[in-house]
Amino acid sequence: MMRRRLLAVAVTLALAAAAGAVGLVRHDEAARQALAAQTVTVLHWNICGAAQNCANRGDTGEGSSVGRLAAEAAHRRPDLLTVNEVCRAQYEELDLQLALKGWRMTGAYAQMHDNVPACGGDSSYGLAVFSRERLTGPVQYRPFTATGDEEYEAQGRVEPVRRGVLCVPTTVRGRALVLCGAHGGTEPGQMAQAHQWFADASAFPQQLPVVFAGDLNQQPNEASMAGIYAHTRGEKDSGEPTGRFIEADETDKPWFRLGAAGGVRCDPKKVSRCRNGAPTADDDRKIDYIFATEDHFTSPTARTTRFPESDHALYQGSFRFRQ
Q: What is the distance between the alpha carbons of residues 8 and 22, in angstroms, rounded to a whole number?
């Protein structure tokens, strides 16, 4: 009789433990789903689509940066994607390959100039943005007027380079936001213009989240970036930073004390974020960024991955919506 009672008690305890474990699994799964519902994943890559030094100039198939990006996007499943140095034909092929690989996105393209022979066709060369969800309004491209008189010479003619900011309205997790991409030049006035545009409440209302990504050709410690970052004064800044954004790699503490990436040097024991991060270009500079408005996002994380098809790292960032 005693043995039966002990067996019954053991069975009861085992069932209770199993029920508790199931409860914990369900709680963990619910917590994971809640976190996923708040997280925005962004992928950015300067694909080196047609420049003289690019390994796959104008190509779109397997072994090209277009093929690589389509495969990586299908694997990583970003909500938003920005692309620099992309031919119009490459943009169109990327759009197709994303759909064929099961990660269809809606895109927009802006031309910077149209005399790049490696691009073929109309020789159009520029930048692109993509959203997993549909676009909810018109596409807007605002060219920088601060050009530094930049020109591109090819095919026997010289053409001005029309850099600017490409923006599309869309949604992520049911929340409205604006995705903007840019390929900036070395002219610092371009980021000053971007600062003015993002501060314009008629174009970017304070309550509207904004994600801004691209190869900006400026390092984090440049004074021009004080109008983009919302924090951390750099030694080149004339005053406190006045930007609206946090950056995906700003909490990467191993880089806080290093200046090789052109970042502000910070004490990781005193601050939790810094205008710095892992290098994104082959010359060990950080010039690629994924920004999100500080009023609407938190918990930035970043990951850079090198591939042979480009002289820039594939850059992935994520943020969480503020509750």
A: 21
What's the one-letter identity of residue 49? G
Helix axes 88-100, 65-76, angle to 10 degrees: 40
Within 13 Å of residue 164, how many CA atoms lie on the same side as its CB? 18
DSSP-derived secondary structure letter, 312: B
Give the DSSP letter string of 165-186: EEEEEEEETTEEEEEEEEE--S
What is the structure's pLDDT at 258? 76
- Which residue numbers in the chain have pLDDT < 50? none
Q: How many other CB atoms sit within 10 Å of the CB of residue 137?
A: 11
- C-beta separation of 42 from 80 below 8 A: yes
Angle at 43 between CA 271 and CA 131, to 5 degrees: 125
The H or E element spanning position 59 is: none
**Residue 176, beta-bridge partner list:** 171
pTM for this model (two decimals) = 0.89
> Which residues contact residue 220 at a Cβ distance below 8 angstroms, ignoring those fewer than 6 apart?
229, 234, 247, 261, 262, 263, 264, 275, 276, 277, 286
Q: Are 203 and 222 in contact (CB under 8 A)?
A: no
Instruction: Note the pLDDT of residue 153.
Output: 87
% of the chain residues with pLDDT over 90: 73
> What is the strand order of the sheet 106-113 is part of?
106-113, 125-131, 80-87, 39-46, 314-321, 297-305
CB 204 within 8 A of CB 198: yes
Return d(Cα 162, Cα 164) in angstroms, integer.
7
